[in-house]
Amino acid sequence: MSLYLTLELCSITVPLILSFDRKVGYYRHWPVLFPSILLTGALFIIFDIYFAKNGIWGFNPRYHSGLILYALPVEEWLFFIIIPYSSIFIHYVIKAYFPQALLADKTTRIISLILIAILILSVIINYQKAYTVVYFSMMIIVVTIALLTNTGLLGRFYLSFLLILIPFILINGILTGSFIEEAVVWYNSAEIIGLRILTIPVEDFAYGFSLILINLMLMNCFRKLFRRTHIS
């Protein structure tokens, strides 16, 4: 079994087993979770394929299965199912056990505006770096939409993301070369800022943040849609 797939299976094992925890009831979210995962994954896969085909990033064959589909190893396709599933599980665990764990709307707005300003400035300064521009711009858009449509969700997600960062840094750290001889995923240094936490490019934090928040926002949209369909 490849290292990449092993990391993914380790990521999802506990969330999958505890999906039927009575207090969390994660399984009850499945009808809106899986459509959201598929739609969000499709968006990210498009950029992944483009980046892989243009040498903006790539995958070390030493650490994946060798099964390639549209320039991406099968593990990368699974990433967009496994990682959102596991990360959103953490979000709902916090919501179930610590329902008051959310920021005030005013604090959420201040944090959001500061983040947006920093990201916009970074995009302007690094306009020639494709990886930076795409995922910083995506985070700008996602945070702006959430701020305008669902401040409560955003305020809760800021806190849950802090806990999501623990497995994120561990898993993504290994993928980018921490604790192992070579990176599982490599990046073209000309297409990123170069600022890293451990071996993780700072852009990947915007990548992970956007990936999970888009899923959460889509889940809310599907809930409303299904509710209307049921009523009608």
Strand order of the largest sheet: 1-4
N to C succession of SSEs: HHEEEHHHHEEEH
Question: Kindly, what is the distance between the CA atoms of the first and last residues, rounded to a whole number of angstroms?
Answer: 49 Å
**Rg over alpha carbons:** 18 Å
Q: With helices defined by DSSP (H or I, 4 residues minimum), what is the helix count?
A: 7
Number of domains: 1
Strand tally is 6
How would you concisely characterize the structure shown here?
The protein is 68% helix and 6% strand. With 232 residues, the chain is mostly helical.
Topology diagram in text:
Layout: H1 3-17, H2 30-53, E1 57-59, E2 68-69, E3 72-73, H3 74-97, H4 105-125, H5 130-149, H6 151-175, E4 185-187, E5 196-197, E6 200-201, H7 203-231
Antiparallel strand pairs: 1-4, 2-3, 5-6
Word description of this protein:
- With 232 residues, the protein is mainly alpha-helical.
- The chain has one domain.
- It contains seven helices and six strands, in the order ααβββααααβββα.
- The protein has a two-stranded antiparallel sheet with strand order 1-4. A two-stranded antiparallel ribbon has the order 2-3.
- α2 (30-53) packs antiparallel against α7.
- The protein is globular, with a radius of gyration of 18 Å.
- The model has no long low-confidence stretch (mean pLDDT 95).
Q: What features would you highlight for this structure?
A:
232 residues; mainly alpha; two-stranded antiparallel sheet; 7 helices; 68% helix; globular
